[in-house]
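Worked Example 4.2. Consider the chain below.
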Amino acid sequence: MPVSLYGSPMLRSRRTFGVLSLLTCGLTCALVYAAVYRLPGFASLGPLRNLVATLLASLPFALAVLLAERRWPGSLGLKVNQRVERIPAPRLDRVDMAVLVGGALVMRLALPGSAVVASDDAYRYIWDGKVQAAGQNPYAHAPDSPALAQLAQGDPFWPKIYRRDMRTVYPPLAQLWFWLAYLLGGVSVIGLKTIFLLHELASVLLLLTLLRRWGLPAGRALIYAWSPLAVVQGFAGNHLDTLLVPWLFLALLLADEHPFFSGAALGASAMIRPVTALGGPALALFRPSRETVLVGGGFLLACGALSLPYAAVGLDAMTESLRTYGQHWQFNGSLFKVADALLNQWAPFRPALYGTIALCSLASALVRVDRDTRMTLGIGAYFALAPTVYPWYLLSILALSAVTGGAFPVALPALITLADLVYVDGAAGGRWEVPRPALWLEYVGLYGLIALRLISHFRAIRRTHTY
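Applying the procedure from the previous section yields the following structure tokens:
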């Protein structure tokens, strides 16, 4: 006669204790966020609230991941194995689903719904949406253009927009969401928060579906859903990278059976943050040539279709600010600083740098590892060499590495958010640079974890060949 997995009182008691322990960790994170962003005593921290919230929440988050490892063995992914055969895992029961998804929602709802914290990007998002609602093309004029003077009059967000002399830098799919956010909430971040929350919910559900289909532990969904990087830099910081995550998961989910739509999903993510296009070779290679063409076709069609509503101003106007950003901006880079110190006097340095990034991404797609790992390496090559690496840019890396597991995505929030110490250094010395000790700690930690992961991977390959 079959016996329920939790039929014995001892097993039921252990499961209840495990669920309650996870809930405690999740509620602790939520209380940290509520305290840091809502209590007046923390307001004096100003833009450093993101760093404080991340560091305080990192301990209960890490403990939650360890508990998930006990609840769903393999969630942390410390053992590196090639997934030769994907056997779908059983669905989560209602209690587990409620804990994982409910915890993610509670953490985000603990944050103030109308606040703009640490970053002024949200002001530009809402402005771009307002311009579109007025029937204008957001790529046609900079916010301080006389053509938009009537829209700017009396707008409380307009004076807070960064670089009002520049056209928008944000790609077409992001613009469509900005337009919808303005229609929902007007000149406030309420509409934006609503869209972000729905995207976060979609991300968690798609990740759970992906993990189940690939036979991976459901606890890995917690690595993204409860991550302080996603909650603080993505949701609290009102950053558009939150919008691209579900498209990345959808691209992976459709990769095996629907290559065309998988490529289209990746194209959609690139129309929010173009760097995700570097995951394209990993998605397209190591498959029949017909499927490679379908992936590429889906990607190009999605990019073209999403750009079409804005194409009347021409490609030059649509990419003007993006090109300026790529040529002149720099912040929190790692390997870029070495290259810049050696080659910054060489006129074609930046174009050569981006060409090198493209080649590194293509080379990483040829490594014989799982597709999600190759995509992580392809996109990660950009961030290793990029001149500008804000913490929220790494949401795509967090999402993809959550599928693989390991210590890297768990430590990533605390390490990358050390870049926020720029606010201390900037206030003290008038510079916009991350303090050197913080920069060293940030990248020695991140590259050290990557190196350990690679060593574990090659050891696993050696053991496979030995036996």
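The two ends are 39 Å apart (CA to CA). The longest helix spans residues 436-466. Compare this with Example 4.1 before moving on.
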